[in-house]
Each structure stands twice: as structure tokens, then as C-alpha cells.
Design a protein that fits this description.
heterodimer, A: alpha/beta, six-stranded mixed β-sheet, 11 helices, globular, B: mainly alpha, 2 domains, two-stranded antiparallel ribbon, binds adenosine-5'-triphosphate, binds magnesium ion
Chain lengths: ~260, ~350
């Protein structure tokens, strides 16, 4: 086996995040193997987005460790993640509203350009080549998602489904090794969701994927492994069949049986 | 020899044929960004040369004024329109440029003009780095407040050190006009207008190249969504500081050009009103495009003039007349922004789109 091959692309251990008195995450651990799709599910407010924010360096955990490709991340800042091969989409779309779709995706590819500040200022050196290569990559990504014809439009003028594809293209264009998807199916039609499922399975062959999603059919369909969060705690973890059969998971989604009985 | 010549000619001919097919627009667009901007700058300089040679010395000075205001507003455009940081204090960077120029001319009289101008840029960039680093974490009204303090505070430095900076009278110096060899051909004011525009256009080439490329795109991304920009690997804080440095360098160079034209640097030219006018001109011209800076600079020079003439024609008292240009400018600003929220450039580009769409 080559020395670079790793069992775990990402290893999260004992991560705890408190917002004031609220424990958004307590002692959360999970691993993602390269070339697999891991699902992260749980009711609203369970802490899924918070875990993404910890991974991206937006939120600092009170304790715990994150190991990426065998290397521990310490006090990492959000902009350093792209360079480490981590890309994410947002629960809101967070597209750049006053930039064309093409420019949105070119920004996603920016880390692949090699010119430095002097070149960016003067137009000398790699400037022209960087521009050409980034544009070509961005167009290819837009074509992959079937939205190349919108390249010169502003995102806000496009249907929601198209905007979601643009956001995916922006995250994918940098060729990440780990892709974090926060509710990619929310607001999509049935057809679009089926297409998305095929796409996510495709990503899963090229990279590790962590999928946060409320759409259970999609999750059960595409994930190799699922982690269930409730009130910031991992209550279940395993392959889809195991998670589906676990009564604790159903309880978390439906509210505890005791509460329901009391309520009636 | 002959064969190597032929080999060289073949691709050139092919390129010429291809561009002939695409027409002049195709040829223009096929050029790399830097030569394209340099050629445009050369054309603009030729235009200024023609304009100043067919008009009188007073007009030449006004054309030169448009030049340095254009640079100051364009630098502000990069900061506000591109990186999304507000500055109510860019007049302070013009102050730095003007005083650097005055001090250099007075204390190192042998330094060539290019060195003086470069020193002004360096001083401005240094100040911009300090201000940018200090304010990188501030947003909206807090950033506005901090830069406002700069605009108010810095000119007061001239009063604190009257021996060095001349107090409220400022510094006076004399600079050479047209070189003796050209004295019969161009007047002093025409020469100075050309020098100012040469400097301004050179700086604009850098600004245009920067804003069209990765750095400009990074700034716009940060302006639109900091979190998403950081996720794409863009160093948000550093890019914001770079925007401040470039903007301050341009402001300072604009101040240096003003000092070069007037032969003075006085604190009263760099009041808060100047900083606010620069911002108003930017909004009037249109946020988000360097062309907006041109319309803004023209407005700064010619609306003030129109305001003065209006006050004069209405026979207003000097107290009222002194403020008339400001009021006039303000009224025009409000009318334009109400009619076209994206300023003059926004209206022009919409017009262009609808013409092309048909
Ligand atoms: N920056 C913050 N400051 C304070 N509280 C926060 C912050 N971010 C999240 N929270 C709280 O932490 C908890 C977990 O939120 P999080 O956004 O991670 O949930 P989620 O699992 O993504 O939910 P959803 O499915 O609704 O997106 C919630 O109670 C939320 O209100
Ligand atoms: Mg969430």
C-alpha cells in the first residue's frame, strides 16, 4: 500500500461546542473514509451545521480534535481549508449576488491559480494564463451541471434549482478531496433530487463526501455510512440499514414516546 | 535568413486573417489585458494632448484637475465599489501625497519628479496598510467612523507641527514647467496637464488590470459574501488590507499631482468636505466600475464650476456664494441617484444593453 493511502480522510474526535449555556455539540466523533459518502442527519437544531462550521474553522470548539488526511488541524482559519482540499456548500446558497455565474465559479477555482500578488497587480507573468485556465475550468464545471448557458447571468435572476447547481459547481470546481454538502436537496423538485442523488454518488467515487440532509430517501439512497445527531450528541452511527432500524433515531425525529403520551 | 523571415510571417498572417474575420473588436479582445490597457491609456493621453492644445491655459488646468480627481475616485472605487469597504477619509491620503511632495521638493530639490511621485505613492501605501490593518475587522458604520476620524484628524497634524508643515498656511514651493526644449511648443499649464494625465493613466492601467483579474474578483467576492469567499480559499483580511493599500496609494498619488499643479500644500484643501465629495462623486458616477470614477471626477470639477457661475449669475452674497457649489453638487447628486440608483455608469450600461439587445 502506498504510504499516502489513508484509512480516514477525516477524523473528528470529542468535539464539544457551547454557545452560552447551549451545548450545540457534545463529544462528537466520526470518521470519513476516502471515496465514501457519509450522511449527517438529525432534527432541526441538532448541531449539523455547527459541525460543518467547526470543520471549516468558522466556529472554534471548546474541546476535541480534527484530523484531516492524518494531520491534526490546529486553530485553522476558514480560508486555509480550500488549500487542504476541503470544500463546502452552504445551507443558504451564499452565492456572490453581484457577480456573474461564471465569476462565482471562477472564485471557487481561485486556489488552483498559481500567480502571486505582483502578477495580479501588473498583468505580467502568469496573469493571462491563470485567467484563461480558471475560466476554462469554471466553464467545464458549469457544463458538468448543465448550466453553462447561464454563465453571464446574475445568480439572483435564475430559478432556485439552477442556483443550487451553480453553488455545487462552485464547490466542485476546486477539485476537493473532501466535500461538505449542507442540505443540497432542500427546495429541489423530485426530478432534480433524483439527478442530485446520481451526482452525489458520482462525487463519492472521486472524493470523500459529508452530506447533511433532511430528505431521508436521498440520504438512505446515497450514503455508505450515517451519523445521527440529536441535541448535539451522536445517538447512532452505522450503515443505512442499521440506522433505519434503530428505535432511538425514530424517537429523535418524532419526539420521545413519553412526551407524546403525556401530550395526549 | 529569408526562410526564418518567412516562417515568422506565416503565423502573423494567419493571426491577421483570423482577426480580420472577427473584426476590430475581435482583435482587441484577443489582446492580453495589459497591452490592451496600455494602448487605451496611450489613446487617452493623445486625447488629452489634443484637448489641451486647442484650449486655453485655464482649461488645461481644469483638465489636469479632472485627472487627479479621477485617480482619487478610482482608488476609492476599488475600495468601496470592489472590496465593499466604506471610507469617509480618502482625502487624508491625498493630504499625505501633497505634503510628501512638498517636503521632497523643499528638502531634496535634486530629486526628479518621478522619484517624488514614487515617494508619495510609498507614503500613501504605508498609511493605507496601517489604516487597513487597523480597520480590517470593522464593518459598516464602525469603519465609516474610523475613516471619518482619519479625515478630520490628519490635516490637523499640519497645525501641530507648524515649523515643518507650515501650519495653516501650508507649504509653498516652485516646480519647473515645460522643459526648455519644448518651451515654444507647449505652455507650462499644458505640460503640467500632460504630466498629471501621464501619471494618472499609468496608475489607472494598474487599477484596471487589478480589478479585471483575480484580485478584483477576490475583492468582489468578499464584498458579496465573506464566508463563501473564505471557503473558496480567499484570505479575507489580507485582501481587504490590500484594497486599502492600493486605494491609499492612488489617493496619495492624486494628492501629489494636485501639489505639483498648484505648487502648494495647505491643510484647508484636505478637509472632511474633500473626503465626502470624493465619496459623493463615486456614488454619482456609479459604484462598481472604473468608468464611474471618470463621470464622478468630471462632476467634481465641472459641477463646482457651474455652481460658482450660477451663484455669480444670481448675484448672491459671498457668504452664500461660497457654499453654493456644495449645495448645487448635493442637489445634482440626489437627483441623479434617485433617477439612476447605480449612478451615471449604471444608466449608461443599461442604455448600452438595451441598444445591443435590439
Ligand atoms: N453562532 C451561534 N450562536 C449561538 N447559537 C448558535 C449558533 N449557531 C448555532 N447555534 C445554535 O446551536 C444549535 C445547533 O444549530 P445548527 O445550526 O448546527 O443546527 P442544524 O442541525 O444545522 O439544524 P437545521 O437542520 O435546522 O439546519 C441550535 O440551537 C442553534 O440555535
Ligand atoms: Mg443546518
Amino acid at each position: 500500500m502506498a504510504p499516502t493511502a489513508l484509512d480516514h480522510l477525516l477524523e473528528v474526535e470529542g468535539v464539544t461546542v457551547r454557545f452560552g449555556g447551549l451545548a450545540a455539540l457534545s463529544d462528537v466523533g466520526l470518521t470519513i473514509a476516502p471515496g465514501t459518502v457519509a450522511g449527517l442527519i438529525g432534527p432541526n437544531g441538532a448541531g449539523k451545521t455547527t459541525l460543518f462550521n467547526v470543520l471549516s474553522g468558522v466556529v472554534r470548539p471548546q474541546s476535541g480534535s480534527i484530523t484531516l488526511k492524518g494531520e491534526r488541524l490546529r486553530d485553522h482559519r476558514p480560508h486555509q481549508l480550500a488549500g487542504l482540499g476541503v470544500s463546502r456548500t452552504f445551507q443558504g446558497l451564499n452565492l456572490f449576488g453581484h457577480m456573474s455565474v461564471l465569476d462565482n465559479v471562477i472564485v471557487g477555482a481561485d486556489r488552483l491559480a498559481r500567480g502571486g500578488l505582483p502578477e495580479m497587480l501588473t498583468g505580467l507573468g502568469r496573469y493571462q494564463r491563470d485567467e484563461r485556465e480558471l475560466t476554462a475550468r469554471a466553464m467545464a464545471a458549469l457544463e458538468e451541471f448543465g448550466v453553462a448557458d447561464t454563465a453571464h447571468a446574475l445568480p439572483g435572476t435564475l430559478p432556485y434549482g439552477v442556483q443550487k447547481r451553480v453553488a455545487l459547481a462552485r464547490a466542485l470546481v476546486s477539485e476537493p478531496e473532501l466535500l461538505l454538502l449542507d442540505e443540497p436537496a432542500s427546495g429541489l423538485s423530485g426530478d432534480d433530487t433524483a439527478e442530485l442523488a446520481a451526482k452525489i454518488r458520482g462525487f463519492g467515487r472521486r472524493m470523500g463526501v459529508m452530506l447533511v440532509e433532511h430528505h431521508m430517501d436521498l440520504v438512505m439512497d446515497v450514503c455508505d455510512h450515517i451519523v445521527v445527531l440529536n441535541f448535539g450528541q451522536v445517538i447512532c452511527s452505522g450503515p443505512p440499514a442499521v440506522v433505519q432500524a434503530d428505535p432511538a433515531v425514530a424517537e429523535a425525529y418524532l419526539g420521545t414516546p413519553a412526551q407524546e403520551e403525556n401530550g395526549d | 535568413m529569408a526562410s526564418s523571415l518567412r516562417r515568422k510571417q506565416a503565423p502573423a498572417a494567419a493571426t491577421a486573417r483570423a482577426s480580420a474575420r472577427r473584426g476590430p473588436a475581435g482583435l482587441w479582445n484577443s489582446l492580453p489585458v495589459l497591452p490592451r490597457h496600455l494602448l487605451a491609456a496611450l489613446a487617452a493621453l493623445a486625447l488629452v494632448a489634443v484637448l489641451t492644445s486647442v484650449t486655453d491655459g485655464l482649461t488645461a488646468l481644469r483638465v489636469a484637475n479632472v485627472g487627479y480627481y479621477l485617480l482619487a475616485v478610482a482608488g476609492l472605487q476599488l475600495l468601496v465599489g470592489f472590496s465593499g469597504q466604506i471610507s469617509l477619509g480618502n482625502g487624508a491620503f491625498m493630504f499625505i501625497g501633497a505634503y510628501t511632495t512638498a517636503l521632497m521638493v523643499l528638502y531634496t530639490p535634486m530629486a526628479p519628479l518621478a522619484v517624488v511621485m514614487l515617494a508619495a505613492v510609498a507614503a500613501g501605501c504605508l498609511a493605507g496598510m496601517l489604516v487597513g490593518a487597523a480597520t480590517a475587522r470593522l464593518h459598516g458604520p464602525y469603519l465609516a467612523g474610523a475613516t471619518l476620524a482619519l479625515a478630520v484628524g490628519l490635516p490637523a497634524v499640519a497645525l501641530r507641527f507648524p515649523d515643518l508643515l507650515g501650519g495653516s498656511n501650508g507649504l509653498f514651493f516652485s516646480l519647473r514647467g515645460a522643459p526648455p526644449a519644448l518651451s515654444g511648443l507647449v505652455s507650462d499649464s499644458q505640460w503640467k496637464a500632460l504630466v498629471v494625465w501621464f501619471v494618472v493613466l499609468l496608475a489607472l492601467v494598474v487599477l484596471a488590470t487589478t480589478s479585471r483579474g483575480r484580485l478584483g474578483r477576490r475583492m468582489r467576492a468578499i464584498r458579496d459574501d465573506e464566508a463563501a469567499a473564505a471557503t473558496a480559499g480567499i484570505p479575507v483580511g489580507r485582501t481587504k488590507v490590500v484594497a486599502f493599500v492600493i486605494s491609499a496609494g492612488c489617493g496619495s498619488l492624486a494628492g501629489a499631482c494636485q501639489a505639483y499643479l498648484l505648487g502648494t500644500a495647505t491643510p484647508s484643501s484636505f478637509t472632511l468636505a474633500l473626503s465626502l465629495s470624493l465619496l459623493a462623486a463615486l456614488v454619482l458616477g456609479g459604484l462598481g466600475s472604473l468608468w464611474g470614477a471618470l463621470w464622478g471626477a468630471l462632476a467634481l470639477v465641472y459641477l463646482e464650476l457651474a455652481g460658482e457661475e450660477l451663484a455669480h449669475a444670481m448675484g448672491l452674497g459671498s457668504n452664500v456664494a461660497n457654499n453654493a457649489p456644495v449645495v448645487f453638487f448635493g442637489v445634482i447628486l440626489i437627483v441623479i441617484v434617485m433617477a439612476w440608483p447605480l449612478g451615471v455608469q449604471g444608466a449608461l450600461s443599461r442604455l448600452g444593453r438595451s441598444l445591443r439587445g435590439r
